[in-house]
């Protein structure tokens, strides 16, 4: 059930938000510092929220390089607590009500592998309907999506959702703290999805594209008619321009039988209607580079066993969603040889 602003500004709600914010992060210095005086900190935060004195603090800036280079603006721990209080109790449900099924990112019950399964289902359905792997794909990517989101347009979309004035003001304060959307905020993920929600409905309901899926700034359209996809591309360019976005140079139309590179895998539709999902070459290359590093570093004590296992298990769990049994067995064997133990 959605909570009101007054209900959010209570000790039980904010304490639950604190517990959510610290989950999986208790080893971090900022979390430990807050946790040392948790009851006092939560009580103070309740007062600051209730009196509407809360303002987001400065970010800690750092760069990540996977899956691509991005600047992350990490909020202070207190801001993470407030984000959970807002998102978990009112913002998430209100923002996601209108989202289409094939908007895959940052939602409960969805995600990377849900998107991959939907793509496989689309390919199978396409073959059942057309009895061929001949067709066309329009693959698009929005240029500098998070950094380019227009605050005025987004604020108008948020206003239409009829938040209480106090909550709407807090959401706008997050927006006004930086240009575009900061990658570190929980709200930013949902704001990004909301920003193109009308676009999702436009593709499905106006352009009538049955086989469409989007993960943040990355989306695909499948159709048997290349000329129609060329028309769709012109319409999409116009739509993006209307919200001050543009597609990047990776956007192109290509034959369906070439396969679709989406969410870390290359998915192919065969002439017999089978869908084959191959792990992206770059992922395999990086894993092999890690193995070479571990083989040298582990005997010297420069990397520990748990770090190797955690990294390998994360990669293996992701790779398991493709046709990768032999590759995974090969990588597993190499990890066993490095650790000199059965795993």
TrEMBL record:
Molecular-function GO term, any one: RNA-directed DNA polymerase activity
Residues annotated as transmembrane: none
Keywords for this protein: Nucleotidyltransferase, RNA-directed DNA polymerase, Transferase
Pfam family, any one: RVT_1
UniProt domain Reverse transcriptase: residue ranges: 1-267
Entries under InterPro entries matching the protein: DNA/RNA_pol_sf, GrpII_Intron_Splice-Mob/Def, RT_dom
Database matches in SUPFAM superfamilies: DNA/RNA polymerases (SSF56672)
Protein name: RNA-directed DNA polymerase
